[in-house]
Amino acid sequence: MRIAVIGAGYVGLVSGACFAEFGTEVVLVDTDAAKIAALREGRIPIYEPGLDRLVADNSAEGRLRFTTDIAEGIAGAEAVFLAVGTPSRRGDGHADLTYVFAAAEQVARAATQPFVLVTKSTVPVGTGAQLRELVARIRPDLEIQVASNPEFLREGNAIGDFMRPDRVVIGTDSDRALTVLRRLYRPLYLIETPIVATSIETAELIKYAANAFLAAKVTFINQVADLCEKVGADVHDVARGMGLDGRIGRKFLHAGPGYGGSCFPKDTLALARTARDAGAPITLVEATIAANDARKLAMADRVLHALGGDAAGKVIGVLGLAFKPETDDMRDAPSLDILPRLAAAGATLRAFDPAAMAHAKALLPQAVQFCENALDAAAGADALVLLTEWNEFRALAPARLKAAMRGDVVLDLRNVWDPPAMREAGFRYASIGRP
Fold it and tell me: Is 263 labeled as catalytic in the residue annotation?
């Protein structure tokens, strides 16, 4: 079986490499010639554990190829996946579908045989219907079915999520499209992965509803953490007590500085706007967005408060910049709200992230100095702030941190370290939602 994937970004590259691992012949198409050249040379433009090996192995076997030529890429493909970006549209928060429609038009014009056009990108309800009309108008001579196959990939664990998914969602009104996609995902039948077949509109909404629910879950436990601090409770124990209830589950009940990344911020915003426009506002999602935005700024104020309200001339060490560990993704990372606020208060910031510093340098203020490692970031600091829970930070010896720092303030915004151990080392230690 042969397929094409349009867009060699995060979703397209991971999906294409994983489909190739299934034994499918995959051609990845992207307009960025430099990116395609790098991929042909085995250089991966994103940080995702295991992706470099997967790309190298399948490229060597001839199952994974890269091109900038759409006609070459889709030739002979039974399915063409659209995996281009759908960022928030400037001004109103709706998903910007410019790249989706442009790619669909180019594919339709270049096609020489029937195929299934599949949206892998996260798109609002109604996009599939618009794509169906678009390709029918451009190519009335060609049978092109349209389907939705949303991705549910967590950055840092994307390959595992693709190979061992909770479910595969296929939205289409075409029996042929459903047959093609079932055949493509046949390797997952062996591990009894549920295949959820729905209408296109339902599939499009499943993705947004899932992400919005998880974002609300994160925001809920963050607000519970604030309450814990006021009443002397421990948010870890509260979350465990909640999570053991099978109706709730343990995942995404980890208090922190707020959610970020490529999905939750833009997907919650797009869902809220879509629901408003449809006359069925989801006020819970709207409240989640507002609470998360406020939380990031509140975390910066918490750091300033720990420094006595005055950060002028102070040095603050920062551990972690990416929105989560095991990724270099800086999109809507809490650091992008917290660090500029600290810099504006007069602080000098010394930061380290194992993977994200190349991206962070273009996004953060000049007051941020980028360091070689965690202890370098802590060197001479009056306060140390942990923003991203990379595993290598968990094992840092409190005594070594204390010896490197000038001051004694530590704010652990991910609850990584043990409070008694940090206090025993001589720190004025504060975490999230723990007494």
Answer: yes
